[in-house]
Amino acid sequence: MGQVNEAGNAGLDAAYGKTGEARPADYFALLKPRVMSLVVFTGLVGMVLAPGSLHPVLAITALLCIAIGAGASGAINMWYDADIDAVMTRTQSRPIPQGRISRDEALGFGCVLSVGSVLVMGLGVNWVAAAILALTIGFYVFIYTMWLKRRTPQNIVIGGAAGAFPPMIGWAAVTGDLSLLPLLLFAIIFMWTPPHFWALALYRSDDYARAGVPMLPVVAGEPETRRQILLYSLLLVPITLSPWMLGLAGPLYGGVTALLGAIFLGIAFRIWRSTDYKSAKYMFGYSILYLFLLFALLLAERGLGWGA
């Protein structure tokens, strides 16, 4: 299910070739700026929490590399997924389906930015951070986009690792190695991803079905998806508390995170018990705020001198 039609593959470039003059805004849209903003923020948190310091110029360089690497992954994703983007209501306005940028241009743009971001990170900051950045790009492009997305309803579960690497990159940019805290931050984002995206998939299931993408509601049905959202939420909340329980975060993080987690679980229970999409839409919006607040609390505690 959801495999690229081999006969249609040959005609994709013609179908989604450029028909108009591309604007800078179109190339910026290829970078998936909303996704990029969250990636940069979590990378910044990893950098700030890391022991030691980084020259401001190198810190800005590292963040730019994280942003550009994430954007490059998005551009290559849009190149590969041009056929399904043209079918799905949520993605039809992207530059390639609209004919403002050709698939070849998007691929070239993404590849140049990918290589450039990794090289600049390695030469300007350190090669450990560059290696994790390269792993992030490769995981998103080859593991999630090309392998998992069209083949398995576990696409989001496994593929979610790509979005969980940035705190590790930020930490490694400062220290040149990894430690327990960045691994916990990775685990938080990794476990957050399924309930976040499955909530979206619940009320966009027709879109995914039309595009042939085997998201969980399409393959296993809505009741199972609602159950999985609850199960992953029950696993997620204790993991979000682990930095505090292990003494790596302070009382501000522990107390507020417990409250935010209780709200998250309350929404997950409502999704499990309901048959409409209101709770799922609320979960999708709240989950973004939830993740942002968790990482903002860690930043706030570092500013107050609390935590590890």
From TrEMBL:
GO cellular component: plasma membrane
Keyword Transferase attributed: yes
Signal peptide, first to last residue: none
Keyword Transferase: yes
More about this protein: Carbon 2 of the heme B porphyrin ring is defined according to the Fischer nomenclature.
Molecular function GO terms recorded: protoheme IX farnesyltransferase activity
Broad class of where this protein is predominantly found: membrane
Transmembrane regions listed in the UniProt entry: 35-52, 58-80, 101-121, 127-148, 155-174, 180-203, 229-246, 252-271, 283-300
Catalytic activity line of the entry: heme b + (2E,6E)-farnesyl diphosphate + H2O = Fe(II)-heme o + diphosphate
BP GO terms, sorted: heme O biosynthetic process
Subcellular location per the Swiss-Prot or TrEMBL entry: Cell membrane
Annotated function: Converts heme B (protoheme IX) to heme O by substitution of the vinyl group on carbon 2 of heme B porphyrin ring with a hydroxyethyl farnesyl side group.
Keywords of this entry: Cell membrane, Heme biosynthesis, Membrane, Transferase, Transmembrane, Transmembrane helix
Pathway where it operates: Porphyrin-containing compound metabolism; heme O biosynthesis; heme O from protoheme: step 1/1
Gene that this polypeptide is encoded by: ctaB
Membrane topology: Multi-pass membrane protein
Annotated organism of origin: Ferrovibrio terrae
CDD domains linked: PT_UbiA_Cox10
EC number per UniProt: 2.5.1.141
Name assigned to this protein: Protoheme IX farnesyltransferase
Family label: Belongs to the UbiA prenyltransferase family. Protoheme IX farnesyltransferase subfamily.
